[in-house]
Amino acid sequence: MNKNSDKFFSNLGLAMRAGKLVTGEDMVIESVRSGEAKLVIVAEDASAGTFKKVNDKCIYYQVPIHQYGRRDQLGASIGKEARVVIGINDAGFARMLLKQLDRTEVDGIDQTRQQ
Asked: For residue 49, what pLDDT is reported?
C-alpha cells in the first residue's frame, strides 16, 4: 500500500465513524435509488455479478462508482468484517475520496486513473 491508499482507507474509516456510509449490496443499492449515495466503492475482488448489478444501478442513477481495494481492506478500514460494496452518503466525504481515487501513485509519479 502506498501513502495515497493509506489515506483513502483512513478517510473511509472517518466517514464510517461520522455515520456517512452504508455497506452491503442491498443497502447501497437502496441508497443509490433514493438519491442518498454520492459515491459507491466496490472491492476489486467482487464477483462479476455483484459488480454488474451495482454498476448498472450507479449508471442509471448517475452515481460515481469506483473499484478499489480488496474486500478485507475495505472492511478493516471501517472496523468491520470484509465488505464488498460501500456507499458514501455525504457529498463532502465523496469529493474527498474521489480526489484520492483520481490520483494514484505509480512508480513515484502521480497519474490520473483511467476509467
From this structure: 97
How far apart (Å, rounded) are the C-alpha atoms in residues 81 and 76? 6
Q: Are 110 and 103 in contact (CB under 8 A)?
A: yes
Q: Are 35 and 86 in contact, with CB atoms under 8 Å apart?
A: no
Total-model pTM? 0.86
List, for the chain, all residue ranges whose pLDDT scores fall below the cut of 50. Answer: 105-115
* Overall number of domains in the chain: 1
3-state secondary structure of 75: helix
CA distance 63 to 45: 21
DSSP 34-73: HT--SEEEE-TT--HHHHHHHHHHHHHTT--EEE-S-HHH
Full residue range of the structural domain in which residue 80 is found:
3-106
Quote the CA–CA distance of 113 and 91 in Å, as a whole number.
21
